[in-house]
Amino acid sequence: MDIISAILPAGAEGIELSHTGGEYELYSELKIHNASEFHRHQVLDEHFRFSKLDKYTSLSTFIYHNYVQALDSIRTNEDFLHQFPMSPDDFEADLSDEHLYLQTAASKRKEDSVEIDYVKALLELEDAEYVLCSCLADSLTIS
Prior knowledge:
Strand content: 5-15%
Shape: flat
Distance between the termini: 90 Å
Number of strands: 4
Helix content: 55-70%
Largest sheet: 2 strands, antiparallel
Oligomer: single chain
Strand order of the largest sheet: 1-4
Structural class: mainly alpha
Order of helices and strands: EEEEHHH
């Protein structure tokens, strides 16, 4: 009969893993005594399930804080915003402008990369000319 006794430390540092030969090994932070392979895998599954939940909790907290910040900004600038009445059509127009901007920004990247390659080529040419001049100067001083 397999008996499991695990001592789990608090926090994400609780489990350290090493991937060797297709097997995951548990290290000193997590002590599993007399555990079957099933129980070892069960502990690993629980660890990764927790880390996924922890990730979503962090993301939810981030979104919530951004929402609160947006509400505070609206509340702070309420008088200013009342000077500019907006309709849903205005938001749709802003959305289409944003899409157009993002498409333009994406296409500029290709042009920018060509410009960057051109500048790199110019720098390489400058370096090659310097090496050539130094080699010619050395050959003239030697003869």
